[in-house]
C-alpha cells in the first residue's frame, strides 16, 4: 500500500483510509473511529487558492500547537502537569502528557455528526436526554478552526466525512439545535467557509485540497504523529505529541 501511495497509484484519501484500517480503526467503533487531518487553515477568504502554501495547516505539528502561541502552554503543562491540571495521582502511576483529551474520541465523532442519525440519538443519550448547549455544538467550520487555534486543550482532528459526505453539514431532519448566546442565531446547517458556496462545494474543494501537491508532499509528517514513530517515546515528547 505504501509503495502504491508513493508511486501515486492511490489517492491520499485512499491511503489514509487504509492506514486507519490497518491501525484497527473502524466505522463500527466510535472510540476507534477513522481519523483524518485538518489540512487547511484558511476558512475566511472569498476564494481558496490551493497554489498558495499559506492556506494549508502545518502538518508536521499536532493540532494543539499549530498555533505557535499554544506551544509554551503545552510544554509547561508537560513539565509540571500535576500542578497545572490539579491532577490527582497519589501513586505516581500516570505518565506525563501534553494533552488531557484526545484527537479522536466518541464524543468528538458525535459532535461532528450531530445532524445525522444514529449519531443524533447517541449525542442526546450522552447529554442525558437533550441536545448539548448550542454554543458547544458543531455549528460553523470557521468557528471550529478558530476555537482550535485559541484553545490548546481542544485537539480534535477531522473524520473522513469531511471529504465525501455533504449531508452531515445540513440539518435535513430539522432538529431544534438551540440558539447561540451571543448572536441569538438559531443553530441549523453548519456555517461554511466563505469560499464554499454549498455543502457539496465545500466537500469538492476540501477533497481537492487533500489531493493537492502541498498535502501530498507533507502528509507523511502528520502520519508520523498519528500512526508512526512520533506517537510515543522521546520523539513524541519532542514533537509535543503526548496524549493522556
TrEMBL record:
<protein>
    <submittedName>
        <fullName>NBEL1 protein</fullName>
    </submittedName>
</protein>
<dbReference type="InterPro" id="IPR050865">
    <property type="entry name" value="BEACH_Domain"/>
</dbReference>
<dbReference type="GO" id="GO:0008104">
    <property type="term" value="P:intracellular protein localization"/>
</dbReference>
<dbReference type="InterPro" id="IPR000409">
    <property type="entry name" value="BEACH_dom"/>
</dbReference>
<dbReference type="GO" id="GO:0016020">
    <property type="term" value="C:membrane"/>
</dbReference>
<dbReference type="GO" id="GO:0005829">
    <property type="term" value="C:cytosol"/>
</dbReference>
<feature type="domain" description="BEACH">
    <location>
        <begin position="1"/>
        <end position="244"/>
    </location>
</feature>
<dbReference type="InterPro" id="IPR036372">
    <property type="entry name" value="BEACH_dom_sf"/>
</dbReference>
<dbReference type="Pfam" id="PF02138">
    <property type="entry name" value="Beach"/>
</dbReference>
<dbReference type="GO" id="GO:0019901">
    <property type="term" value="F:protein kinase binding"/>
</dbReference>
<keyword id="KW-0853">WD repeat</keyword>
Amino acid at each position: 500500500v505504501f509503495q502504491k501511495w508513493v508511486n501515486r497509484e492511490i489517492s491520499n484519501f485512499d491511503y489514509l483510509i487504509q492506514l486507519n484500517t490497518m491501525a484497527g480503526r473502524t466505522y463500527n467503533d466510535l472510540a476507534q473511529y477513522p481519523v483524518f487531518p485538518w489540512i487547511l487553515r484558511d476558512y475566511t477568504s472569498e476564494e481558496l487558492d490551493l497554489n498558495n502554501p499559506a492556506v494549508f495547516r502545518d502538518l508536521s505539528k499536532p493540532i494543539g500547537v499549530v498555533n505557535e502561541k499554544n506551544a509554551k502552554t503545552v510544554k509547561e503543562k508537560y513539565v509540571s502537569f500535576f500542578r497545572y491540571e490539579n491532577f490527582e495521582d497519589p501513586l505516581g502511576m500516570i505518565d506525563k502528557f501534553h494533552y488531557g483529551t484526545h484527537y479522536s474520541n466518541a464524543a468528538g465523532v458525535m459532535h461532528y455528526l450531530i445532524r445525522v442519525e444514529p449519531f443524533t440519538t447517541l449525542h442526546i443519550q450522552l447529554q442525558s436526554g437533550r441536545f448539548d448547549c448550542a454554543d458547544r455544538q458543531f455549528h460553523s467550520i470557521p468557528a471550529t478552526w478558530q476555537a482550535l487555534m485559541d484553545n490548546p486543550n481542544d485537539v480534535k482532528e477531522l473524520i473522513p466525512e469531511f471529504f465525501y459526505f455533504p449531508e452531515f453539514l445540513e440539518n435535513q431532519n430539522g432538529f431544534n439545535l438551540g440558539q447561540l448566546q451571543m448572536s441569538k442565531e438559531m443553530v441549523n446547517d453548519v456555517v461554511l467557509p466563505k469560499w464554499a458556496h454549498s455543502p457539496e462545494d465545500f466537500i469538492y474543494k476540501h477533497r481537492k485540497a487533500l489531493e493537492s501537491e502541498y498535502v501530498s508532499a507533507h502528509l507523511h509528517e502528520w502520519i508520523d504523529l498519528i500512526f508512526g514513530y512520533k506517537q510515543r517515546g522521546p520523539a513524541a515528547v519532542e514533537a509535543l505529541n503526548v496524549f493522556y
